[in-house]
Amino acid sequence: MQDGAPIALRPAAALRRKVELEVALQAAPGDADLRVTYFDHLQMLAAEHTGLSHAMLPELGHPLYFRGATPDVANMAQVFRDHVLEVPMAATPRRILVLGAYAGYAAVWLARRHPLAEIACVEPMPANLRLLALNTGPWSCIRVLGTAAWHSATRLAVGTRLTGDWAPSLHDRADEDERLLPARPVADLLSVLGWSQVDFVLCDVVGAEAAVFADPQALWLRQVDVALVQTYPGLVPGVDQTVAACFPSVFYDHHKPGEYDLFQRRVPLRAYPPAPPRLKLIPDEPGLAPLLLHDLEPVPWAFFIFDGTSCQLHPNAPGRAPAHIVFPRLLSGQTRFSAVLHHAGASSAPIVFAMVLERPDGSEVLRAERVVAARERVTWSVPLPTPTGPHRVVLQTTMAPEASNNHSAWARWLDPTLS
Hints:
Layout: H1 10-27, H2 32-48, E1 52-55, E2 64-67, H3 72-80, E3 95-99, H4 105-113, E4 118-122, H5 126-136, E5 142-145, E6 148-149, E7 154-161, E8 168-171, E9 181-184, H6 186-193, E10 200-203, H7 209-212, E11 226-230, H8 239-244, E12 252-255, E13 260-265, E14 279-280, E15 292-294, E16 303-306, E17 310-313, E18 323-332, E19 336-343, E20 351-358, E21 364-372, E22 377-383, E23 388-399, E24 411-418
Parallel strand pairs: 3-4, 3-10, 4-5, 6-9, 10-11
Antiparallel strand pairs: 1-2, 7-8, 7-9, 11-13, 12-13, 14-24, 15-18, 16-17, 17-24, 18-23, 19-22, 19-24, 20-21, 20-23
Helix pairs in contact: 1-2, 2-3
């Protein structure tokens, strides 16, 4: 005992303090000093306990998990407190490859910064892979590959561990029974992903960058707009020159923000003009999005969500008010509503699907309707008048005028989206 309190009470007190700081951060997300205090507390928590815990950052809609007695919190702090990845970029990456993804903190940060991008995480360590899957699982744009990046397809052994599983040095010089970790060249990884190119490469592989960037003539390098690479010349002498040779100065500017080398193509291949973000009415990304249900029958099949981004909205019996869902959303110039309308009933009268865009006071901006017959599936697109600010998107279903009942009227909205 240190201050008269039993040791068994210390975890509870530490967790209470953690929750207090998280509530304060939610109220003041831009308070840099408070964020430093929060990460200091997480460091203390991780230093004095083993086991799995989590951080709740105000900009994220889900927890980020970390392990006690590991460098997890230090890595998370680099990304979300110290902003080591906050580099200016002229390119607009649509495909991002994270080599040495560790626990997924960088991938989650990149998913927020580049919401239209696909992200692939490459991580060979089994313990890291479990945490990586847990942290990135809520993000449908992130994929995980359980392998290492190398210059050839092989298996690797673990050499030096600088800081546990955060920075293991991998090599292919051990006996066969010690080489347990699979490795593949980047070109093979892109083939597995189905990618023709990668736009942005983030690489922190503790000396293995000498193998990843061994061939400056590799075809996959010709399409890269941005590479952010941490080199370890103390482990592999000359590795910084090896990496730089892959990004010739005639095409790339080279800067060194912090411990990383930033190579940025002077004229980006993919500098897309800014566009309003896609807004899924039923999101499968992290975060809570409000919805209101009105005039639904008290039956289990009246409304439910399936496949993450789709829902069933069973129409009421003829003569009753439409069943409807209200999605209050903050719009930023989206120009189109789209969805697939599916009448999944085998023997039913047609259903009228309607989409209504309303102002906060309930006045209509736009109304559109589409009649869908039984077993029919229709791709539907409705132009919008470029709305901005708070609005309400209302989805309705009702039976067609000729219907005598609503039996088997399985009305389904598949992936309703504003773009």
